[in-house]
Design goal:
This protein is mostly helical. The chain has eight helices and no strands. The radius of gyration is 25 Å and the shape is elongated.
Length: 177
């Protein structure tokens, strides 16, 4: 590469300043603004689909610690919950299942998507919990209505708490809302 002298650099700079302004076409400007707007304002349905995928992937992880799923032997915490009774175990299971997905989403989703998730949290988490439960049923799990209700309660409360705590840690700590 050729080194430019200060005089040549100054000449190039003044040519740049004196050059006529180049304005992009209206179509290009509109396309750029549309892309930026889409990136800054993701749709709640796209955020949900990403969250559903993250939860499905993380669900396998959480099922490996649940002895009732048949995948894993369980850990001491799950055995402890089981000793407290089926209702407490269902609440804890729902909370853990959804919370793992929420925590992973804070590493995998963009900040704009996390803001949409928080803004639509009740709808997102309700549909996510019900879809997850439906997935268990479709996979052949035998689900009792009362146990499912406790699982949904745990999923909702655990998901809401995890979402709020994660959001505060990630955003409010640095002063971003």
């Amino acid at each position: 590469m050729k080194e430019i002298s200060p005089k040549e650099w100054e000449k190039d700079f003044h040519e740049f300043l004196d050059a006529p302004e180049a304005e992009p076409s209206r179509a290009v400007s509109d396309r750029i603004l549309e892309t930026v707007s889409k990136d800054l304002n993701p749709s709640a349905s796209m955020v949900f689909l990403k969250l559903l995928g993250i939860t499905a992937a993380s669900g396998v992880l959480s099922l490996t610690i649940c002895p009732q799923s048949g995948l894993g032997q369980g850990i001491g915490l799950m055995r402890f919950f089981m000793q407290l009774g089926p209702h407490v175990c269902s609440i804890a299971c729902g909370a853990i299942f959804i919370s793992i997905g929420i925590i992973l989403s804070f590493f995998l989703l963009r900040p704009e998507e996390l803001r949409v998730l928080r803004r639509t949290r009740f709808l997102q988490l309700t549909v996510l919990a019900m879809t997850s439960l439906l997935g268990f049923i479709c996979a052949g799990a035998q689900v009792l209505v009362t146990i499912a209700a406790f699982w949904l309660f745990g999923a909702m409360v655990g998901g809401l708490l995890t979402l709020e705590v994660s959001y505060r840690i990630k955003f409010l700590q640095v002063g971003i809302n």
